[in-house]
Amino acid sequence: MNNQKGNNQKQHKVQYNKGQKHFKNPKIAHSKSKNLSKTAVLFDNHKDDLGSEYSLNDILEIGYPIVETTIEVISSGKPSDILQEVHILLIELINTGVDSKGALAQFLGVSENDFILDELYTLLENGIIAISDEEKYRVTTKGDIFIEEKKFIPVTTQEDFKFYVDGLTKDIYYEMPSETTNTPNRLAPSVKVDFDFIQEQWLKINKCYTRANAGDKEIVDLANYKRSITARRDLFVKYYVLIYYPKDKSGKKIQLKVYNSESKLLKSHTESLSSLYSSNKYLFDFTNELEGVEEYKKLFIDAAVQITDEKLTGKYQDISTFEHKELIKEALFTADTAVYIESPWIRKATMDYLPAMEFFLKKKDTKLFIAYGIDSSFKNAPHKETFEKIQELKSKYPSRVFIFHLPTHFKNKFPNRDGSHRKILIKDFEYYIKGSYNWLSYSGNENENYAVEEGTQFFDNVEQFWKKVFHDYQFELSLLNFS
């Protein structure tokens, strides 16, 4: 927080002259000179808001911090009306007996390589149609339901999403909440918007994205782990802080009210800034003496963040999408101490790893940690049969299998968290992997639908990373006492 010390702890009573329409206060006059009419209107309208026991002493224009952030995402949503009509047309033609690629091309008056007929592969991949050995198409039962219920095949795209993070409260918007300002009275953001922030606030970001797209699309995943944030900069919104001082010395607290440039009272910002001000009386002290120092400090911090973002420390290597499946099996088959797997979802794909999990647990004193759950909704619940198999392993090895449903765990530890979108694999003290690969829900087979889910494998400071994960989630650190 940009909390420079000064002497405005003292109560400077504002002198307001209706004829001259200005404030007489030498300390803050330089900050208000460009907005005389605005502050005058605010003073007239709100000077008596807190009754006779308070006087409106200061009105400050401040720059409230907003972090503009752009991330690269993979989204899924409704296809264009034209593409949807193409799918329906192809299904209806097949139902009427135009059931080969050649016949379809002839009927439509296009070549067999036309992009329209390429959509046959999309229908095949999604089980809407099937093809016989004689290369004749037929509509499946799923296809009949598809037509009857007017469904559509989601289209997956890679794109940039720009959103705005409140630099003090972490609230997320898809539009800039108000006009920006170049006032020198700027509050520094206390929220660090980095990859960890993206993971922790994943659900809120996804909901924000869906609202921005009128409910037609949602984010499936980040497009690239290390380059998930493609742009980021600090902006400052123009807000006005009205500061009311108690008229007597009875111990009443100074009161604040926050308005935007449209003179709308901002209740949530009033609450957050009042809370900050109660713990830091220098919050609104923007003395010129420290301005250069703070600017230099900000440049230094920004440079340090940029270096951290661009350069990964220690020994590491990039992991492509299809390498992950073999790495998790390798970890379970060859680890001697402990394996930690964190993934937002548990799906049927986990069945592939159950034999390897049991092989690992048959070794003496090994420990398997599984953390999962992006939220508590029914649609994100684990695959029933798969989860029952995992529970069987826990029953068989009760002191060595630990399953953490993060939304439930966070209820007591972090009330404002729903779950986690992080994906992590840790093997002994040998390595850990972070990235966008959904360890327990994506099959990772090259012959199936392709998703870009890359990661990075780190070989240094593995023991410290174990401790960091357990500390971040407030898991019992005693569980890390490996025999």
Please outline the helices and strands.
Elements: E1 15-17, E2 22-24, H1 29-32, H2 36-46, E3 54-77, H3 81-95, H4 101-108, H5 115-125, E4 129-131, E5 137-139, H6 141-148, E6 155-166, E7 172-173, H7 195-200, H8 202-212, E8 217-222, E9 229-246, E10 255-260, H9 267-279, H10 291-310, E11 316-319, H11 324-334, E12 338-343, H12 354-361, E13 367-372, H13 384-396, E14 401-405, H14 406-413, E15 424-427, E16 431-435, E17 455-458, H15 462-473
Parallel strand pairs: 12-13, 13-14
Antiparallel strand pairs: 1-2, 3-6, 3-8, 3-9, 4-5, 6-7, 9-10, 11-17, 12-15, 15-16, 16-17
Shape: flat
- Strand line-up across the major sheet: 11-17-16-15-12-13-14
Strand content: 15-25%
Taken together, the total number of domains comes to 3
Q: What is the C-alpha radius of gyration, as a whole number of Å?
A: 29 Å
Q: Quote the distance from N terminus to C terminus.
A: 45 Å
Number of strands: 17
Largest sheet: 7 strands, mixed
Instruction: Provide a count of the helices.
Output: 15
Share of helical residues: 25-40%
**Structural class by sheet pairing and helices:** alpha+beta
Q: Low-confidence segments, ≥5 residues, pLDDT <50?
A: 1-35, 303-311
Mean pLDDT: 83
